[in-house]
Amino acid sequence: MAERAGLYAGTFDPITNGHLDVIGRGARLLDRLVIGVAVSTGKGPLFPLEERVELVRAEAAPIAERAGTRIEVLPFEGLVVDFAQQVGAGMILRGLRSVTDFDYEYQMAGMNRRLDPGIETVFLLASETNQFVASRLVKEIARLGGDISSFVPKLTLERTLERVRGPQQG
Questions:
Q1: Per-residue pLDDT averaged across 137-141, rounded?
Q2: Does the annotation list 105 as a binding residue?
Q3: 135 is in an annotated binding site
Q4: Cβ-contact 78, 39 below 8 angstroms
Q5: Residue among 20, 110, 124 nearest 71 (CA)
Q6: Plot region of 6 (φ>0 → left; ψ -120 to 50 → alpha; else → beta)
Q7: Whether pLDDT at 131 is above 90
Q8: Other CB atoms closer than 10 Å to residue 134's CB: what's the count?
Q9: Under DSSP, is residue 159 helix (H, G, I), strand (E, B) or coil?
Q10: Which residues are catalytically annotated?
Q11: Per-residue confidence at 170, pLDDT binned at 50, 70, 90?
Q12: Disulfide-capable partner of 146 in 28, 76, 90, 141 (CB 3.0 to 4.6 Å)?
């Protein structure tokens, strides 16, 4: 039987519990999941690419172990469909939080299908606890001194707080 390989791509700046939910659910559907961390210099990321890749690897490792799925985390630049071809993914996973997400993702899926009809886009609905979690909002809350501990995993929480608040004086 052919390996079922999929791609879940994003900026992951920072990776959230919502992202991890999609990764965990996607890992149960696939033999191999590639997590593509987009360069995304235009968005002015909080974390440099190398650190985002490192955080995603660290946070996704326990999921790979639990699911028995090989998870690879790789940086990429350019079209998601091109990267899916490069890594041999027959499926692009996308998480949906809201109707607004659906409108955008539906258009992207249609464009990707035109670019490569052999790659399917599969939408996973956000779990009810993560429907409102967005990296952009997590960063904003952290910068304003709010509690983001329920939105991100522990290592990402520590790194995000270090990044937005700077080194704490003891």
A1: 94
A2: yes
A3: yes
A4: no
A5: 20
A6: beta
A7: no
A8: 16
A9: helix
A10: 19, 43, 97, 135
A11: very low
A12: 141
Residue 94 counted as an annotated binding residue = yes
Q: What's the token pair of residue 40? A: 């995304």
Which has the closest alpha carbon to 83: 20, 5, 4? 5
Q: What is the pLDDT of residue 43?
A: 67
Q: Is 164 annotated in some ligand binding site?
A: no
Averaged pLDDT for residues 77-83? 96
**Any residues with CB less than 8 A from the CB of 165 and at least 6 apart, and which?**
142
Question: Within 10 A of 105 (CB to CB), how many other CB atoms are there?
Answer: 16
Token digits of residue 84:
């899916």
Give mean pLDDT, residues 108-124: 97
pLDDT level of residue 72 (50, 70, 90 thresholds): very high
Tokens of 124: 């996973």
CATH class (in words) of the domain with range 5-164: alpha beta
- Answer whether residue 38 shows pLDDT above 90: yes
Element (DSSP H or E) covering residue 139:
helix 135-143
Torsion, Cα 26 28 29 32, to 10 degrees, reads: 80
Chain CA centroid to CA 22, Å: 8
> CB neighbours of 115 closer than 8 A, spacing ≥ 6?
79, 81, 82
Asked whether the beta carbons of 89 and 119 are under 8 A apart, the reply is: yes
Average pLDDT, the chain: 93
